[in-house]
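Hi C.,

You asked whether I'd gotten around to modeling the 550-residue construct. I have! Everything is below, sequence then structure, no commentary in between.
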Amino acid sequence: MSNFKKLLTATVAVSGAGAFLLAACSKTATKSAKPVSSSGYEKSINWMTTSELESLDPAKADDTASEEQIANTYEGLYRLGENSETVPGVATKSTTSKDSLTWTFYLRKDAKWSNGDPVTAEDFVYAWRRQVDPKTASSQVNNYEGIKNAIKISEGKKKPSSLGVKAEGKYKLVVTFEKKIPYFKVVTAISLKPLDSKAVKKYGKRYGTKSAYAVYNGPFKSVGWTGSNLTWKLAKNPYYWDKKAVKLETINYSVQKTPSTDYNLYQTGKLDAAILDTQAAKSMKGKKGYRVLTLGNTTYLCYNYKKKKIFRNANLRRAISMAINRKQLLSTIGTYNTQAKTFSATNVVLDGKNFAQEAESANSSVNKYVEYDLKSARSYFKKALKELGVKKVSFTLMADDDDSYKKQTEFIQSALTEAFGGKMTVSVNNLPKTTRVSRQIANNFDVVLGGLTSDFPDPYHFLAYMQSGQTYNFGKWSNKEYDKAVKASLTMDKTKRRKALLKAEKILIDQEAISPLYHMGQAWMIRPNIKNLVFNGEYPDFKTTYAVKD
């Protein structure tokens, strides 16, 4: 999914997860009857997703459900392991030039497609050129930003053949950049998949429209998806180079959209995992099988600095932030979400360390602005009124019109009214998502409650959004020191990069450029015999997952 779409659709994830109701809680889950291998592992598990698939073509998939399938059936140069650690995929190693603008990737010679064809450097060249070609109309072109000519090609200003990628022999891939991209390995782990050109040319426009109209180089291959049905399988890929690490033979998928259905199926052993809504999560929390999967999302208040001049006052923004009791907010919408003290999400990693945790610790002096403190909030508000030369302020809080966001806007409106009385008037405008999106893009709002789910678990991919002049900096906030820090993070020097990113995060929270509220999570019931499930903020990776006999 493109950065743009993730920015706009992340705000509905809570309501999507909350659409599943708990039914028949008192029943005891029965054991699922599945074939068991002689090794003691179950051969298959039954999983669910909440929506139909759009495509199995990495260049065309725009939805999370399709991306979940692609993440398990295709493999890039690298892949994400536990805790967003970058581990080798098709590439065994890489080297960089002295100026860091040329990267060379050395590919393993035993990587193959599910039809037996070898995976070669040319497969990456072909796929990447195809994806940035405007004829493909891929929504993921932003993922190629920084590679020489990528954006110009997508705009029709250069030919696809001019993309900064070339094959030197069958197993060496050379990538040339326009600027330093220190997080590029992470990008290749999430996106920039290869394609077997023979298969794409064979199926043409049909490629990826059915399981049978694609070939795969990942741990699994898709089987049984006809383009519209609601059940299909991930089957172990016998040609996968690391097939010994893959314990599951099949993952049986089904789409579950009807309220209560998924949990009923879990109880009767027909599903091994089910999403829970807010009430279900409260009931099942602490029980065997209950798990919280943290999404790579931050939900926050975005202020309009261009249209609403009062929000150019930092003390007003601090007052609003400190008047919101985030813990109480989460008790309303689901405690599987976590309080946000950073803009970067909880799955963001820098050099193997959780960046959100590191930023919270390193920048502790500004944490007060994202904590509930009514006395301080009123003090900052008093200062703001004096600095603005007004006796009261008013604004409209905009958000989507689903049940979750209605609860959230009502909570925030009540909190601010309680904190500041008649000196702050907050109107609420809950709109259909498409209307909210169009108004946000047009800069037609005062304050909007929304969220960001970044494509890649690297802090740059969050912090870059708030740079001056960025299209997705909807509030038009601008800070020279912040811009300087984000720009300085584009270095291969790990120490300097960490320092710059921590500084940028600190400025953002100190100024309350946006007010982070919570990091989104999902409550699941997952059969306890399922082990080693890797989840890095958006969808599960089943490569090393296994299920032991009960």
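If it helps when you're writing up: The two ends are 37 Å apart (CA to CA).

Thanks,
B.
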